[in-house]
Automatic annotation (TrEMBL):
It comes from Desulfitobacterium dehalogenans (strain ATCC 51507 / DSM 9161 / JW/IU-DC1). PROSITE patterns: VOC. GO terms for molecular function: lyase activity. This is Lactoylglutathione lyase-like lyase. It comes from the Bacteria. Coiled coil: none annotated. InterPro entries: Glyas_Bleomycin-R_OHBP_Dase, Glyas_Fos-R_dOase_dom, VOC_core. The keyword Oxidoreductase does not apply.
Amino acid sequence: MGLKFDAFGIFVNDLKVMTEFYRDILGVEIQWDGNGPHAEFLHEGIRFMMYERKELPGYLGTEVSYPNGINGTFELAIDLPEFSDVDIEFKRVVDSGATPVLYPRTEPWGMRSSFILDPEGNLIEIGSWGKGKNK
């Protein structure tokens, strides 16, 4: 049997703002009481966590660094069923306060794709490999 990832985590500056964005704007469920440096969302398939950056050096026993501006080191990808869903979801989250980066477009490899930023500059792709025909 091969390696299987159990979880992914994001190290954040403001845990409250970030959990509110992912809960209220993206709609990811969470049962977090607002206390402590760690929050875990209710997410099927893989655990999704956030941890306060200020706690990490003490935990690891060494200094760490973080990107500034748009974080181009990873993306979180949302896969929707149909191409038209990308346009609808992109508009909804931008109208709700997400920062747009790449407006929906159909890529040469056959995917409908768009990108937004979370409050700390992490890239979130809203895309679909569906059968839609939006251009």
